[in-house]
Structure formats: structure tokens, C-alpha cells
Amino acid sequence: MAFLFACNKCLLFLVVLLLHASAAIAAAALDNSTDLASLLAFKAASTSGGGAASDNIIAANWTTDVPFGTWVGVRCSLQYPPRVVLDSFSLQGTISPHLSNLSFLSSLDLRNNSLSGTIPDTLGRLPRLATLRLSLNPLSGPIPPSIFNNMSSLVSIILSFNNLSGSLPTLVFLSHIEIISVGHNLLTGLIPADLARCSTLQEIYLGENKLTGSVPSSLGNLSELVNLSLGNNQLTGAVPTSIGNLTKLWYLYLAFNHLKGEIPKEMENLVNLQELHLDVNGIVGSIPISLCNASKMTVLDVSTNNLTGPVPATLGKSMPFLQWLRMAGNALSGGLDFIASLANCRDLNYLK
Ligand SMILES: *[C@@H]1O[C@H](CO)[C@@H](O)[C@H](O)[C@H]1NC(C)=O
Ligand SMILES: *[C@@H]1O[C@H](CO)[C@@H](O)[C@H](O)[C@H]1NC(C)=O
Ligand SMILES: *[C@@H]1O[C@H](CO)[C@@H](O)[C@H](O)[C@H]1NC(C)=O
Ligand SMILES: *[C@@H]1O[C@H](CO)[C@@H](O)[C@H](O)[C@H]1NC(C)=O
Ligand SMILES: *[C@@H]1O[C@H](CO)[C@@H](O)[C@H](O)[C@H]1NC(C)=O
Ligand SMILES: *[C@@H]1O[C@H](CO)[C@@H](O)[C@H](O)[C@H]1NC(C)=O
Ligand SMILES: *[C@@H]1O[C@H](CO)[C@@H](O)[C@H](O)[C@H]1NC(C)=O
Ligand SMILES: *[C@@H]1O[C@H](CO)[C@@H](O)[C@H](O)[C@H]1NC(C)=O
Ligand SMILES: *[C@@H]1O[C@H](CO)[C@@H](O)[C@H](O)[C@H]1NC(C)=O
Ligand SMILES: *[C@@H]1O[C@H](CO)[C@@H](O)[C@H](O)[C@H]1NC(C)=O
Ligand SMILES: *[C@@H]1O[C@H](CO)[C@@H](O)[C@H](O)[C@H]1NC(C)=O
């Protein structure tokens, strides 16, 4: 009897414990004052540019009368980590450093606003942030090193179309990163060889900057790479032969640089390549026959280089999906046999 009683008590105790536990979880969820303060600080800074009231939608919408979970652009629940998604909102102020107190933030998307000032380096403290998208703003100053070396949660960093300057920070530990997009900025300095440490990278866009130095051969280690864009910079040296190790590559844009040397014959391994842009460089030698292994090629542009020798006669035969072929502005010689093979390319609509 006593035993049974004790056991009941035990059960009751357990239930109370469970109730306490869920109450604690609920209380933690309700204690959102830090999140609220961070969001209000963000609101104050990002609407401080004096945009028209109709532009600054969040100025009117983000009021403390209603839970911030209902605010436009703020998504959060117990199940889903908070996101702040305010693309194309005409925000004209700055990005508040207090945003870093939203410690559960998983996505910050402020693309296509008029946010100016610098990217706060406190963003590097957000331990859950997977997506950081600040493209299409007039942000200036450097890319904070904390973002590149302290955020193992990051999957994509998209900072393109800003006015960011300085050099690319060294990458130390971004174990989940898939996309780095910092094109169309004012970045200078070298492409860090350490970029190759992030073996999960699939897409790299560094085009339209003022980067110098050579294309690091270490990039050949990035076996998951699909898109690589380094065009419109001031890169020198040769296309590294290690590029031939990137067998998943389908988009390679190296145009408008000062690259020299030959097209590496190792590129014969790039059988998935669909777009190759090498135009406006100082590349010498001939168009290697091995390039014809890229049977999925749709765009091939080697124009305005110093290429010599004949065009491979089987070019068109081996690239049936070719839509764009530009080779003008070289010193190519030899017969026009390749022209006949282009009859095989039914989608060809540009040839020069
Ligand atoms: C964010 O955290 C920092 C440091 O912990 C603190 O100084 C600041 O006041 C906080 N900001 C807000 C808006 O809570
Ligand atoms: C804020 O915007 C959301 C989403 O558009 C809307 O549902 C809500 O009613 C708005 N709240 C206020 C106070 O304007
Ligand atoms: C935040 O806490 C307040 C009360 O403490 C509550 O009314 C509100 O629903 C909570 N959640 C959000 C998302 O604002
Ligand atoms: C940027 O936002 C403007 C409105 O502010 C919109 O008209 C435009 O289509 C957006 N551009 C992109 C690329 O999203
Ligand atoms: C690095 O991140 C941790 C937590 O994710 C944070 O405590 C620390 O302040 C960050 N360091 C820098 C330099 O941002
Ligand atoms: C970058 O700054 C220049 C002036 O320094 C300005 O003309 C240009 O519009 C800015 N670009 C962006 C995207 O803000
Ligand atoms: C990357 O490739 C280079 C050769 O270009 C090699 O020396 C280096 O050890 C490789 N790094 C990693 C992390 O695999
Ligand atoms: C490319 O692959 C070859 C052969 O597998 C290997 O010897 C070389 O080290 C690789 N280079 C890089 C940079 O990964
Ligand atoms: C990059 O690769 C993805 C596929 O992974 C593709 O959808 C996208 O259009 C590519 N971007 C460019 C600029 O080619
Ligand atoms: C590329 O084509 C050449 C013949 O031009 C062939 O010997 C080689 O095995 C091919 N390589 C691949 C990876 O398909
Ligand atoms: C490429 O050819 C141009 C003339 O067509 C010449 O001025 C230039 O020096 C050449 N460059 C190289 C790297 O051969």
C-alpha cells in the first residue's frame, strides 16, 4: 500500500517536473525583451535615412502594440529560428550593430535597399546565421573579418553590388559555406589561397572588383565548385592547371583580366562545362582539341586574346549545344574546316 502510494507520488512528482520544464521553456520563449530591443534598434537605424514614409514601411508596421513575430519581414516561431527578410523595402539608414543580439537569427536578407555605412563586425557573433544577403545596397568599408572566420553556420554570403573596399578577409573556418558572392564592389588585393579550405563551396563570384595577383592554384581543391566567376578584375599570371580538377564546374568566367599563358590542356577533364569565358586577356597558344571534351558547352568565348593556330576541326561536332561562339580578335590561322562542323550546332545564334 505504502509502496503504491510512494509510486503514485513518484509519478506525480515526475509530471510536476515535466510541467515545470515546459513552463521554463515557455518562459524562455516569452522572455524576448532582448530580441525586441535588437529589432527596435535595427528599426531606428535602418529607417534613419529620412526616406518617404511610404517607403519606410517598417517604420509604421513595427510597433510594440503587437508581437514582433507579426511584423512585416520578421518570421519566427518556436519551431523555426527567426529570420529578418526585408528585401526591396527602400530602407535608407544603416545596419544596426545591435542586430547581433538576435542570437537565434538564421537568415538576414536586406538585399536591394539603400542601406549605407559599413557592415557591423558584430554580425560575426550570430552563431546560427546561415544566410547573409546584403547585396544591392550602397554599403561601404571593408568586409568584416569576423564574418569570414567566425561563423561556421554560414551557408551563403551575398554582398555583391555594394561599394565594399579593402581586401577579402582570410577564411579560417566556414565549414558549411556553399556560396560566396562579393562581385561588383571595389575590393582590392589578392584572392586568398585559403578560400580553398572551404571544401563545401559550390559558387564563388568575385567579378567586377579590382583584385590583383594570380588565380590561386589551390582553388583546384574545391571539388564541389559549380560556378566560378573572377572576371573584370586585374588578375595576372596563367590559368592554373589545377582548374582541370574541378570536374563539376559548369560556369567559368575569367574574362576581362590580364591573364597570360596557354589554355591548360588539363581542362579536358571539365566535361560538365557549359560556359567558358576567357575573352579580353592575353592568352597565347592554340585552342586545345581537348576542350572539345566539354560536350555540354553552350557559350564559348575566347575572343580578344593572342591565340594562334587552327580552330579544332571537330569543334562543332563535339559541342552540339553551342549557342554562342566568339573567337574574334586573335591571330588564329589554318583552315575553315571547323565551319562545316558547326552545322551540327542547331542552337547556334552568335558566331564571330
Ligand atoms: C546588445 O548587446 C550588447 C552587448 O551585450 C549591449 O551593449 C547592447 O546594449 C545590446 N543591445 C540591445 C539593443 O539590446
Ligand atoms: C504589418 O504588416 C503585416 C504583414 O504585411 C500585417 O499583417 C500587419 O497587419 C501589419 N501591422 C501593422 C500594425 O501595420
Ligand atoms: C514576446 O513576449 C511578450 C510578453 O512578454 C508576448 O506578448 C509576445 O507574444 C512575445 N513574442 C513575440 C514574438 O513578440
Ligand atoms: C529593387 O527594388 C525596387 C523597388 O525598391 C524594385 O523596383 C526593383 O525591381 C528591385 N530590384 C531587384 C533586383 O530586386
Ligand atoms: C565569435 O563567435 C562567438 C559565438 O559564436 C562569439 O562569442 C565571439 O564574440 C565571436 N568573435 C568575434 C571576433 O566576433
Ligand atoms: C559607390 O560610390 C560611388 C562614389 O564613390 C557612387 O558613385 C556609386 O553610385 C556607389 N555605388 C553604389 C552601388 O552605391
Ligand atoms: C590544395 O592544393 C594545393 C596544391 O595546389 C596543395 O598544396 C594543398 O595541400 C591543398 N590544400 C588542401 C586543403 O587540400
Ligand atoms: C589535381 O589532381 C591531380 C591528379 O589527381 C593531383 O595530382 C593534383 O594535386 C590536384 N591538384 C589540386 C590543386 O587539387
Ligand atoms: C550557378 O549555378 C547554379 C546551379 O548550381 C545555377 O542555377 C546558376 O544559374 C549559376 N549561376 C551562374 C551565374 O551561372
Ligand atoms: C578528352 O579527350 C581526349 C581526346 O581528345 C581523350 O584522350 C581524353 O580521354 C578525354 N578526357 C576525358 C576526361 O574525357
Ligand atoms: C598580343 O597581341 C598584341 C597585338 O595583337 C600585342 O600588342 C601584344 O603584345 C600581345 N600580347 C601577348 C601577351 O603576346
Protein described:
- The chain has a single domain, classed as Ribonuclease Inhibitor (Leucine-rich repeat, LRR (right-handed beta-alpha superhelix)), CATH 3.80.10.10.
- Helices cover 18% and strands 14% of the residues.
- The protein contains six helices and 18 strands.
- The strands form three sheets. A 13-stranded mixed β-sheet has the order 1-2-3-4-6-8-9-10-11-12-14-16-18, with no helix packed on it. A three-stranded parallel β-sheet has the order 13-15-17, with no helix packed on it. Strands 5-7 form a two-stranded parallel sheet.
- It is elongated, with a radius of gyration of 27 Å.
- The structure holds 2-acetamido-2-deoxy-beta-D-glucopyranose (NAG) (11 copies).
- The site of one 2-acetamido-2-deoxy-beta-D-glucopyranose (NAG) has 5 residues, from loops.
